[in-house]
Amino acid sequence: MTAVKPPVTTCHCAVANTAAGPGAAIVALAGAPNSGKSTLFNALTGARTTVGNWPGTTVEVARGVWHQRTLIDLPGAYSLEPLSPDEALTRDLLVADPDDRPDVVIVVADAANLARSLYLVSEVREQPQRVIVALTMLDVAERRGIDVHPAALAEALGCPVVALDPRRRSGLTALDDAVATALTAAEPAARPHRCCGDALAKADERFGWVAAAVEAGVTDAGDDRVSFSDRFDRVATAPVLGPLLFLGVMWVVFQVTTTVAAPLQDFFDTFFSGPVTDAALAGFAAVALTGTWLEGLIVDGLIAGVGMVLTFVPLMALMFVLLALLEDSGYLARAAVVTDRLMRAIGLPGKAFLPLVVGFGCNVPAISATRILGDSRQRLLTVLLVPFTSCTARLTVFVLLGTVFFGQWAGTVVFAMYVASILLVVGVGLLLRRTLWRAMGTEPLVIDLPPYQLPTLRLTASVAWTRLAGFLRTASGIIVVTVCAVWLLQSVPAHGNAAFGEVAVEDSVYGVAAQAITPVFAPAGFAQWQTTSALVVGFVAKEAVISSWAQTYALEEPEEGGDPGSLGERIMADFTESSHGHPIPAALAFMVFLMAYTPCVATLAAQWREIGGRWTLFGIAVQLAVAWGLAVLIFQAGSLWW
């Protein structure tokens, strides 16, 4: 493993029309990973961002509007010699036919590692292309005794150079002015170079050009002091202390999340089950619709189901804030180094951990992120492993069950689920490699480690809000549709003489279908149809598990003379009954099954697109087999002690 540290085919016009209107200028952001490119993109576009496949490819590209221009965030690349599909898109766009090239290319260059960043500039400048160099990380360079002179560097490069700090939003106006000036100017001539046929000679010429530019525009004081990042990384990336530190940090994240968010969850739960429900019932009574199917849909369906999911919004927001803090500080990049040994054990490069980390947020973009891997077999294996990473949709269910069954230990239990998720990725990866991909080799990890920085409030809030809003946009439509579908199935009688909307839940199509498959889960300790039906709904979206429970228990009549109780109390009672007095191991078995079984339909669609139907169906079979086997093992072993 080698951690590289700072020194001690398509027409873009159609895309532009969907972003900033017909005829809008196209500005592309290019640069190496961890150079500040994505931070600059977010600072320039704000919330006006969309992500989708580039036309004619399966590579996802972020697009946004910046002052009536379409801004495209190209995949990170060190050069125009691609090693993966996403890097190939960057090359194709930047060296494509003139009719398809961006109007302006902004190459983001790390001032603290300028020579490495400028190699891409040398390649882009070989095209008749308007190029602007955006210098980032100037504060880091200054701390290392490196003084960059933008004017002198611009003269050496033959293109404008703008110094900025996207994290603090300084220098953005100067960049805007430089782009506006470039758009009014004619395309510059391509940078001349003497080596046209020999690739090695051409590379040598580029390195020489870069060295000359750095010499002209940079004063290096030769400060050899060991930086704080270097000192701290002796612990953060150490073979033993590194993983322990990583686990400790993540335990704190989950502990803080479950503890701080709990009062807010209780508030929203009381709000939806109290004032909102009472107001809805009063409204139906005022228009003489009490007891109708419409009241059932609104009160027992949408308010009970959607309201329960919305109680977890504070938890999701806090989780995204904490992860954004870790990301902005530079610590999360060390996770790839810490897990490199595990990745190589299953035949994957250390950078395969990056899409897997994304999977802990959402499996769908994680599958798209596997395009950073150059080997097709590595991409296939990683896509099959992504569903075993526990996404934030599962987090809501883990927190609910952790709070119900484990009380003050809920944070630790949720953390344990995420550790189990990592172990599951490694275990299944080892199994698949030793059976299907025994000949697949390994490769060393080469990754830039950004310097540690104090997170900024603006950037942290922006990243957290973007992710929360994205989750709500994706989940809201799915949840509403699922809630309506579940309510409809619960309202249609499967047998008996009850009318539509008046049937007992267990006698509805929903209840009868769930009861038919419930015996399969008897060895796992949660053979209650209410629980089984929630898992079936979870095939659509994991957060819908909670809404399904909320709907079912809202409609289900308590025993004669009994108190309906809270959702948690009803779940506890059912798990106690189905496990014959062993609710703790049954709850753990359910959580592990939820973690390992087939992900949401959106993830399956992403898998189908990336690896095809045959491998997607193979993945579903593996997920169900692993989930059921582990759930049975955990309950059977756990019931001997609890």
How are the elements arranged and paired?
Blueprint: E1 2-4, H1 13-19, E2 26-31, H2 37-45, E3 49-53, E4 60-66, E5 69-73, H3 85-94, E6 104-110, H4 114-124, E7 131-136, H5 138-143, E8 146-148, H6 150-157, E9 161-163, H7 172-184, H8 199-217, E10 218-220, H9 228-236, H10 241-286, H11 293-310, H12 313-329, H13 333-338, H14 340-345, H15 353-359, H16 363-369, H17 376-385, H18 392-406, H19 410-435, E11 446-448, H20 457-491, H21 509-517, H22 529-538, H23 544-555, H24 567-578, H25 583-596, H26 601-638
Parallel strand pairs: 1-11, 2-5, 2-6, 6-7, 7-9
Antiparallel strand pairs: 3-4, 4-5, 8-10
Core attributes:
disordered N terminus; alpha/beta; seven-stranded mixed β-sheet; elongated; single chain
